[in-house]
Amino acid sequence: MKPVVFQRASTLEEALFLLAPPQPEATVLAGGTDVMVWIRSGGFHPARVVDISPLRAECARIVEREGQIAVGALCTHAEMASSPLLREKLPLLAEAAASVGAPPIRNRGTLGGNIGGSSPAGDMLPVLLACDATVVLQSAGETRRIPYSRYCIGYRKTVRRSEELITEVVFPLPAPTALARWYKVGGRRAQACSKVNLAAVGALDRQGQVAFLRLGIGSCAATPVLMENVAGQLVGCYLSKEAIDGVIPAISRDISPIDDPRSTARYRSLVAQNLVIRFLEELVATATAT
Amino acid sequence: MGFIGQSIPRTDGFGKVTGQATFVDDLCLPDMLFGATIRSDEPHARLERIEWDPDFDWSSIVRVDASDIPGRNAIFLEQWDQPALAQDVIRHHAEPVALIACADRELLETARKHVTLVTRPLDPLFDPEEALTSEIKIFGEDNLFKQIEIEKGDAPGAMKSAWRVVEGEYRFGYQEQMYIETQGVIAVPGEDGGVTVHGSMQCPYYVLKALTPLLGLPPEKVRIIQTTTGGAFGGKEEYPSMLAAHAVLLALKSGRPVKMVYDRAEDIAVTPKRHPGVIRHRTGVDREGHLLAQEVEILLDGGAYCTLSPVVLGRAAIAAGGPYRCDNLKVLARMVATNKPPSGAFRGFGGPQAAFGVERHMDRIAEEFGVSPLEIRRRNLLQIGDTTATGQQLKDSVGIGEVLEKVAEISDFENRHRAYQHQPAKERLRRGIGLAVCFHGGGFTGAGETWLASKVDLELTSRGGVSIHCGSVEMGQGRNTVFSQIAADALGIDLALVQTPPPDTATCPDSGPTAASRTTMVVGRLVSDAAENLLARMTELLAQQAGVQLDAIHYGQGAFHWEGQDLPFGEAALQLHESCGLVRARAQFVDRDGMVWDPQTYRGDAYAAYSWAAIATEVELDMDTCMPRITRVVAAEDIGKAINPLSVEGQIQGGTLQGLGYGALEEVKMENGRFVNYRMTDCLIPTAMDVPDMEVVIVERPYQHGPAGAKGLGELPTDLPAPALAAAISQAAGFRFDEIPVTPERIAARLTQGKEGA
């Protein structure tokens, strides 16, 4: 087996230098919950690994600024799950983080890692879609800000260039009237990869019409999906029973689930429909109650 | 006042929870190599040759193939069919073909990639239903490992007079044992040409018996020592013989110790699992719902090699009719070969499959009659005086009625079952409740225990106590604690004076395999017998030393008494250990029940004692996700006597959870003869979060020859949750599910049947 070049960056600047050309492409190591498993299981042989875990001082903060919440890429799931700021202002993210894996995974796995790997089943990603979050990519020369809805462009394929590092994710604060829900369906009640996961944010206006609706769904296509057909059909409409039932074809257009060892396309379609409908019904019920 | 019946803490608990217990992978010997297995990538092929890349530097790698085997190339168990290393023909995916060892694990992994198996593919046989008639021959002329026919009365005749005949078909998949510690051994070559194996295992003597013909060595040159074993559940009954064979071949060739510990992926991909298959029932019932005739057909998929499959089939056949009274029964049970990794022992050992079939079928009969699942069972339960499927008359210790009534009462079964029949159809959360009963015979089938002739030795220690020597292992089930309690009470001494060293075939007699729910019931009794023999031996020696008649000494209150003297056991033990050296007493199994058994016809006394269990399982089914949440479980189990009630409760809870997993969660998926979800990420078992509210009731109907009345326990709890859970989910979903696991995917498929686009 060829030796692996292992480099540990102690500052952001150093990390960006190590990733910059003319250096050959490197695999970025943060919590290791993906990379270590890939290497251990024998299928992945990176030539060079750049460990950015010492960058926590720069990249593991959760702060509010200018009406937005910025979450550092090295924040662990455990930190997001227990952050008072997130629990108050962005509980959807905290709740989703708490539903990932088991405590050891949540203590190691990071937000940046979840985005970097962009598994279709990644639990943070539907939340990023539903919250219209922007990924901040830094390289030695520039900083790019890409909405996550344009970030993942294929199965585990993203727009990140090899010299770029995910440093932060910025979430606009949701409207105070919005209803936000996290649904995770795994094989068992905890410590399970998602068969379907759905982050849903929506609100009705004073007339009871859908003011906005953002549904991020995972494990139902090659990438996490923002359900634009559903939103396109419903925004501006009353959520009558007919309108809700009539959304099923739009759901089918938004997703393209497959059979894999974890579940079936048929199951995923059914659950996606049921969860979207459940959210819409909750939206109506909540609006009626207030 | 004694230790039996007390919930004393596990004697092995402290070491395990503090990390002091030494597992095989914790052991490291000087000059040790690591071994790895080269496996087939095809389910069925002719093996032309093994190509060792000539451009690779093999100088630091030890290589072994079938030609290195000094004796017979077979892992002997029931048959000689399974080679230690495939030769000429590959019969299943991931079959071991060659072995390599190296001190450097990285290099070992690299070397693995430089071995090529040159093969010519053969058509594979995957469907067990086609095995008997297939042109593809895996085992013998008809791919039949074993066929068992049981006939009692005249089932076809009685069927004709039945008021109604109910038919049903029940299917079940693989289940993985998923012990926390994966399989592992270290083989150490001896200077005398012999070998010692340290490893995680259930049956040290199985390993010994497999290695001696393989190596062509006499038994005294092969020594097996069990290391702390982190769970087994039957999965370490056969396979350690295979793994030990591999490590030993490498060790003998290299002259160095060789460690082989599987990672999880290899362990799941290659080791035997619970047999999948199908059971078909045809039952004739009279107007009152009594069973007149039962015809049962069992087909189990044994995979490519025989392993313990015939014995599993025997258990399934005997239990096929369930714990019900029926004078006319006909069972046709078959174990067939396919090109898949061999199936094998798993807690329950044919029992869970049989219970799933007959219990779901009883539910079907109840439905057809319009009576409740509880009522149909009440009308047909076995009672004292009745005969079982094999014609065995039940004389005592039959707690089936009591366990069923306890469960019915505590779970409020009738009321809930009725209420859930009438719940609103459109609710998102729907409820259901299911019931099951079963029995499990303790010990080996029929004359098996007489044939095993198990032995246990008790020996005085230099510390004034005793140590228990036998081949039965502690594998997490509580053997050490239970044996200590039994020995301490039999000797009237403190628990701290009893030691339970791990089995070592050089110093421990064969007490039979740690399997078949026999360790407490059969071997525990031998511990108690050996204690009595030890007291007799000590009395004899003390009489000699004191110059008194034997009958002048009597033992009571933990001390020997004679002529005004009182010598406490500990002091006597020290004195005798000092003066006489080794003081050891043995007990050997004798059949006290007068068992009569015909292995050809399966007629007679199948088991010395049966344990009985009933369970009720309640679920809440989320119709959006088709995920059942098990809200409550009530289990009542008649095990004769709870030697350690806390341990018993734990074992019932754990076994129940394993059975619930079998029913609705655990699925080992196979494609083209290979397991596809061979990682814990996708091969799910329940976690603590999936544990329902569980109420356990222990019922004690003693077996007169068990230690303090104890019967078998280990497997019983695993036998019956699956049908009860499937029944509960069926009621909640409004559809009948007769195939397990009842996964959300299966439920979804039924709910959307005929609907397009879903």
Distance between the termini of chain B: 65 Å
Q: Name the largest protein-protein interface in this structure.
A: A-B, 29 and 32 residues
Which strands sit side by side, in order, in the main sheet of chain A? 4-5-10-6-7
Largest sheet of chain A: 5 strands, antiparallel
SSE topology string of chain A: EHEHEHEEHHHHHHEEEEEEEEEHHHH
Shape of chain A: globular
Uncertain stretches of chain A: none
Could you give a quick summary of the protein structure above?
Chain A is an alpha+beta fold and 290 residues long. In chain A, 35% of the residues lie in helices and 25% in strands.
Molecular structure report:
The complex is a heterodimer of chains A (290) and B (758). Chain A is α+β, with helices and mostly antiparallel strands and 290 residues long. Chain A is built from 13 helices and 14 strands. Chain A folds into 3 domains: 5-54, Uridine Diphospho-n-acetylenolpyruvylglucosamine Reductase, domain 2 (2-Layer Sandwich); 56-172, Uridine Diphospho-n-acetylenolpyruvylglucosamine Reductase, domain 3 (2-Layer Sandwich); 179-289, CO dehydrogenase flavoprotein, C-terminal domain (Enolase-like, domain 1). In chain A, α10 (228-234) packs antiparallel against α12 (248-254). The relative contact order of chain A is 0.11. With 758 residues, chain B is an alpha+beta fold. Chain B folds into 3 domains: 28-122 and 183-261, Aldehyde oxidase/xanthine dehydrogenase, a/b hammerhead (Aldehyde Oxidoreductase, domain 3), CATH 3.90.1170.50; 277-445 and 600-751, Aldehyde Oxidoreductase, domain 4 (2-Layer Sandwich); 448-588, 2-Layer Sandwich (Aldehyde Oxidoreductase, domain 4). Chain B contains 19 helices and 31 strands. In chain B, β10 (195-199), α4 (204-215) and β11 (222-226) form a beta-alpha-beta unit. In chain B, α4 (204-215) crosses α5 and α13 packs parallel to α14. Chain B is globular and about 80 Å long. Chain B starts with 12 loop residues before the first helix and ends in a 7-residue tail after the last helix.
